């Protein structure tokens, strides 16, 4: 599974509607409204790198009100949940 973090600039007065449109797309697992340079952050999960082209420039960028995107492809996942699970193997609590 390939995960891409997509930073999205939008028309500020349409953030909720744009976020809902993006969240409804296949392969988009989550959309967050955020502070800072970008208005939204979307997590896109696909099976192949080629699929990113279908989702990001092919769908997200074409939604009315999306002004631009900046995409970061994840190499590896680290999370507190995963670390806790790994250290708990074989231990009874």
Outline the structure in words:
The chain has 93 residues and is α+β, with helices and mostly antiparallel strands. The chain has a single domain (2-87), classed as Alpha-Beta Plaits, CATH 3.30.70.920. The protein is 26% helix and 32% strand. The protein has 3 helices and 4 strands. It has a 4-stranded antiparallel β-sheet with strand order 2-3-1-4. The protein starts with a strand and ends in a 6-residue tail after the last helix. InterPro entries: Dimeric_a/b-barrel, Tscrpt_reg_AsnC/Lrp_C. Residues 6-77 form the Transcription regulator AsnC/Lrp ligand binding domain.
Question: Summarize this, please?
Answer:
InterPro entries: Dimeric_a/b-barrel, Tscrpt_reg_AsnC/Lrp_C. The chain has a single domain (2-87), classed as 2-Layer Sandwich (Alpha-Beta Plaits), CATH 3.30.70.
Helix and strand arrangement:
Blueprint: E1 2-10, H1 15-23, E2 28-33, E3 40-46, H2 49-55, E4 66-73, H3 80-87
Antiparallel strand pairs: 1-3, 1-4, 2-3
